[in-house]
Amino acid sequence: MIEVERLTKRFGRKVAVDQLSFQVRPGIVTGFLGPNGAGKSTTMRMMLDLDNPTSGSVRIDGRHYRELSEPLKYIGALLDAKAMHGGRSAYNNLLCLAQSNRIPRGRVDEVLDMVGLAAVAKKKSKGFSLGMGQRLGIASALLGDPEILMFDEPVNGLDPEGIHWIRNLMKALASEGRTIFVSSHLMSEMALTADHLIVIGQGRLLADTSMAAFIQENSRSYTRLRSPQWERLRDVLHQEGYTAVETAGGVLEIDGASTEELGELAARHQLVLHELSSQRASLEEAFMQMTAGSVEYHAHSERDPGAEPPPPPGAGWGENWNAPGSTDGKGA
Ligand SMILES: Nc1ncnc2c1ncn2[C@@H]1O[C@H](COP(=O)(O)OP(=O)(O)OP(=O)(O)O)[C@@H](O)[C@H]1O
């Protein structure tokens, strides 16, 4: 368990992390999300005692990092894959870490094998590709067989097989009861990996919730119906009290109704359906919606230099976008 309490970090006048409080629980993968510059790396660095907080605290299983006598046995981290000594071999990089934490030499071979670097163990790490460096960083995090693991952008530079491997590794480590805390900008990957999310923007906590609840609360979900008899279907829906939004190609969108009830309704009226599907926003869409007001760095299209600033959080679909019977026709 990691407990972050009112953690604050100022760099001069810049408040990078602002009164942040949350807990990272064991047995699940907790994703750490935020736009560029939100304060994720700074928070992770303070969790590992690599930066001093301006105020607030971080507890690792009830203790401050400095109180852990052999920290790698409690918490392993991949923060900066390039932090390894480039002139040393992968094996020697890990051996130095192992020796300073009284970890048996045999564990070095074990973790090199786990991350798939056994064949290049004796090669200098400065010749490693981005993906190999990332694997070496992961090996160093696993070295002490810790109960808590933190990964900052772990899939950076990994090929699809590597991404699949790290996803399964994190899930397997969580299922063993370990605490897994991971940041990533790759939303599709995060959606497949994390059970719980901590979302920050401009150093402040925006959400601390399950993946399912986050998507549900920050996006619109509706049922999509496509029918060659769509005009009749629309009238039937209206008669039965549903609000159907018409979109191109005879597609109807209905908020607040299940696929089961709409399918049965169509059957009762002997209407042909070519599509009956539940539409739910992706994590990426929900994330963009939630963080719209706290993105610091915006790209501006050259063709549209006077683009409107982003809407504040929650303003993207209008106030009542998720109210039952909404006639808002925008897709999620
Ligand atoms: N050593 C430093 N000195 C001054 N400002 C810093 C320093 N480190 C970070 N910052 C600032 O603090 C803010 C948070 O940075 P941080 O790297 O923690 O964000 P992040 O969420 O990890 O971003 P990214 O997703 O781009 O990696 C940024 O505005 C950054 O410029």
TrEMBL record:
GO molecular function annotation: ATP binding
InterPro entries: AAA+_ATPase, ABC_transporter-like_ATP-bd, P-loop_NTPase
Keyword entries, A-Z: ATP-binding, Nucleotide-binding, Transport
Residue span, ABC transporter domain: 2-227
Region of interest (Disordered), ranges: 298-332
Family that this chain belongs to: Belongs to the ABC transporter superfamily.
Protein's UniProt name: ATP-binding cassette domain-containing protein
Gene source species: Streptomyces californicus
